[in-house]
Structures are given as structure tokens and as C-alpha cells.
Amino acid sequence: MNIDTFVFIMEIIGTIAFASAGAMVAVEKEMDLLGVCVLGMTTAVGGGMIRDLILGVNPPVMFQNPVYALVAIAFSMLVFIVAYYNHKLQESKLYVAYDRLMLVCDALGLAIFTVVGVNAAWNMEYETTTFLQIFVGVLTGVGGGVLRDVMAGNTPYIFVKHIYASASIIGAVVTIVLMNFFGELTGMIAGAVIVFVIRIFAAYFKWNLPRIRKD
Amino acid sequence: MNIDTFVFIMEIIGTIAFASAGAMVAVEKEMDLLGVCVLGMTTAVGGGMIRDLILGVNPPVMFQNPVYALVAIAFSMLVFIVAYYNHKLQESKLYVAYDRLMLVCDALGLAIFTVVGVNAAWNMEYETTTFLQIFVGVLTGVGGGVLRDVMAGNTPYIFVKHIYASASIIGAVVTIVLMNFFGELTGMIAGAVIVFVIRIFAAYFKWNLPRIRKD
Amino acid sequence: MNIDTFVFIMEIIGTIAFASAGAMVAVEKEMDLLGVCVLGMTTAVGGGMIRDLILGVNPPVMFQNPVYALVAIAFSMLVFIVAYYNHKLQESKLYVAYDRLMLVCDALGLAIFTVVGVNAAWNMEYETTTFLQIFVGVLTGVGGGVLRDVMAGNTPYIFVKHIYASASIIGAVVTIVLMNFFGELTGMIAGAVIVFVIRIFAAYFKWNLPRIRKD
User: Fold this and answer.
1) Chain B interface, best mutation among C53, C57, C135, C140, by max B CB count within 10 A
2) Which of A83, A110, B14, B92 could form a disulfide with B112 if both were Cys (CB 3.0 to 4.6 A apart)?
3) Residue numbers in A near C31 (CB within 8 A)
4) Whole-number mean pLDDT of chain C?
5) Could you tell me if A27 and A95 are in contact, meaning their C-beta atoms sit under 8 angstroms apart?
């Protein structure tokens, strides 16, 4: 497959996943329809916007090509509509499903945007260091979620969830190593799978990094 | 009138309106004199700074021309002084006036910065899409207020107030359509009036978009 | 001493100071090891990143040269380890020391990044106004701390602490005046000392700007 097409498909999947995650947080916060769309869109395009600002891509890609924002808005509305007809979401069995869906969407967005970010830095016309590629990849991956949580008034996921940024960092490193040896396609797929698997396993098995509790 | 002069006057009015709105929030939060100035200035120049970062105008206009920041600081101080001599603001009849003044200032800033943002994108030397123009316009309009609310620890207005970003979006679209047919001046004036009127009407008649309440 | 070497040493000291301050806030918030590193790093490199985005340095220096991030991570880990073996930090005599250490680290970072920011704007290849130099200096100084506090869910220091941004503004002005008369080295050292001394004195003597309390 053409690498550009592949990256585009990845980005659309990531956009859908993050838009849904953002919209779910907004619904939880009882925001109105437009608030849901704004938060969904911010989550979806926020990481890419930060990436482009850092790499000096002006104006950022998401502002030039409306497809990302439109897809994000469409899926945010979809989440709103589904939630609208499931008022008692939290009290029903659906709630567990909701919680899991949120986790999967967020992990998917994190995985895809990490490797897409690494790839964007890798393909800049000016020379980029491995360090920059990793850094930009992780920022692209976690950026949307941090914006979402700060705007919604929550403590960012990245600070409280089991193994979150670490999954992104490991995936970014793997992506770069494999891209060097086996090409971009293989590197990106493997990197994304690794981020996703680590994140889901960490949530499922409640893997935690050490933390200091006051008592 | 010269279009540049017109835009400059609009920007100064918007700066005054948003600086006052930001300063009022800071006073509410019992911040000190400098905190009031910082929040007033952030609200006033924040939207324009985000706009210039996205459009690739480095350094942003507000950092090159001190007039915006100085006007913002002057009016933030004015708000502080007025509030200082009206200690019991909240308990007096003035409070209602205060609440309305805040609404008008915020709506005015939203209206003006939306159309100024659209116009800035429209006038870039590189080609810009209609989508980019709308997006940048809305970001310029709502950006200052979002920064204000996040920094003050409030849930951003955009997520909780009746018809806020929607007013900005409609105004941006109207501005672009009318600029194409009747020139920049007409487009900007009409767009700004529409944002302002929709926002004020929405607040007055308590227009709301649907939202999902947990009960 | 070579001015570049001097600036580099200043930046490393500022990075260590701000990373430690950020890590301490994260430990207070009971974040895990990675959260501590992320917040420490954000505090340390955040101001410089904002500075470079505004000045149009793409990609920002901290993304090109890994040394800043690595130093920030190392010292964040150090803070974590020290705190880990002092579980009962808050209840012990150490707590007072902790509180003071936090103050000194934060003041040191504020002082150094203010003058480094001024100097960076001063040395741009395009012409910069005095206003821009002051503005960028202050933003570089306070930016990391604002990001830290917003991400940690605290009200930004800048709004609540005795004489914070004012110290940075005064220091920036002094730096520019002295750089014009006595060269960069003298200006930067004097400016940094002034920011640091004002900030520490303000905290010690509880200097306050006027503020309006509701009662």
C-alpha cells in the first residue's frame, strides 16, 4: 500500500477514536451538543496541531484539510445521539461497556497518533534527530488527551492512569527502530500495536508505576 | 474608510472588551492587581496570539506592537480600581449591572475577534481555504476566553454558556460570504453584528442546545 | 566567558531548578513516577518551548537538543527518589525545608528563564522591539510554571503568590537596560539576581499587591 494512503487511513481511525473519547468525556460533564463537538474535535485534532506548530508546519494540516475536523464532528454527534437515547447510561449494564469503550478509543488514538507523529517528524525536509522524532511522537499521542482533560477540568489522564505516556514512549522508540530496518509501514504498524497492547494490558491488569502516597 | 484603520479600531475595541471581561473574572477570583492585569491581557491578546501561531506569523502581531497589551493593561487596572471602590459589589444592585456588563464585554470581544480572525486568514499571502478562514476566525474569537477560563480554574464558557461557539461559527460563515460579494468592510461589520446579536439574544432568552442531564 | 557557554550553563541551572519544582508539585499530587517526570519536564522546557514558538524557532531548541529534557528527567527522578524515602515528609521537620526548597527552585527558574528569554529575543536575526524582548522574557520565565499549575489542576502561582510576574517584569527591564550599556553578560547576571532577590524577599516578607476580598 502507498505509505501516504496508509498514514491517512491511520489518521482517520485515530481521529474517530479520539473524537469519540473526547465526546464521551463531554457527555459525562453534561455539556451541550456543541460543547460535545468542540471537545471531541479538540481531542482529535489537538495532538496534530501541537505537532505541526512544533515542526513549523504553518498552517497546521488540520486547518488546511477539513476532513479531519468534519469526521471528528460527525462522530462527536454520533456519541451525543447514542448517549441521548441511553439517558440512564451510568445506572445500566451499558455503563461497564461505556467505560471499556472509552478505554479502547483512547488507547487507539494514543497508539495511532504516536506513530503518525513519529512519522511526520521523520519525513520533515530538514534533518531531525531521533530525540525530536520520539518527543514529537509522544506529544502528538498524548497532546489531544491532555487538552481534553484540561479543558474539561479533569486531571489529565497522563498523570493518573496506569502506564499511559510510558506506552507512548516505548511505542515511539520501537517505531523508529523498526522503520530504520524494515521500512515505514512495518515500523508504524508494529509501534501502534505495541502502544495499544501495553495500554490495554496496563489498564486490565492494573499495572502501576510507583507513586508516593501521603498517609 | 481605509480597511486597515477599520481593522485596527475593531481590534482595539475587542481588546478593551475582552480585557475588561478577563479582569472581571480575576476580580471575582480575588486575584491581586497584577493577576488582574495578567488575566485581562491574556484574554485580550490570547485569541490573536493563537491565530498568528496557526497562520505562521512569527512573532505574533501583539508582541510586535505594544499598543494592544498596553490598552489591555490600562483597562484591566480600570476594572480593578472600579471594583476596589465597590467592595460589596455582589451584594448591591450593582451586581446585576456587573453581570450584564460582563456578558456584553464578552460578546463584543467574541464578535470582533471572530471577524478579525477571519479577515486575517483571508488576507494571508498564501492561499487559504474557506475552511481555514472559518476555523481561524472561531479560534481567534473563542481562544482568549478559553485561556482566561482555564487559567482561572473555571470550566470554559464555551462549554457551558448558551449558544457561544455556535454564534461565532455562524458569524464567521456570514462574514466570508458577504466579504466575497460586498467587500471586506461590509462583511466584517455584518458578521460582527450577527455574532453579537445571537450571543446576547441567546443569553437573554436562555436559548440552549440540547444536553444530556444525568438524574 | 563565552556568552553562548554562559547562556547554556544558565539554561541548565534553570532546567534543574524548574524540573525539581515541577516534580515536587507532582509528588504532592501523588502522581506516579512517570507523571513526576512529565510534570518536571513540562515545567522545565515549557517556557522555552513557548518562547521558541513565538519567536518562530521551528522546531524549538529543546526538541533538537536532548540535553535539556534528559537533565529535567534525571532531576525529576531524583526528587521522586528522595521523596520516596521521606514518606512522612509533610509531618516531619523536613516539610519546612521542602517548602523553602520549592520556593528557591521556583524563584531560580523564574529568574534564569526570564533573562534567557530576553536574551533570545534580543539575539534574533530579525529586528525585535524592546517590548517584544520584555514580553518574551516574562513569558519564558512564567510559562513553565503556568503549564505546571494548569496541568496539575492548581491555580497558577502567578495569580496567587506574592509579587511573582512583577519580579519577572522588573528583571526583564533591568536586563535590557544593562545589556545596552554593559553588555549581555552583565545584563543577564544583574537581571537574574534582581528577579531572584525580589521574589524571595516578597515571599519572606509577604509583600503583596492590593487585592479585593469579598466579605
Assistant:
1) C135
2) B14
3) 159-160, 211
4) 85
5) no
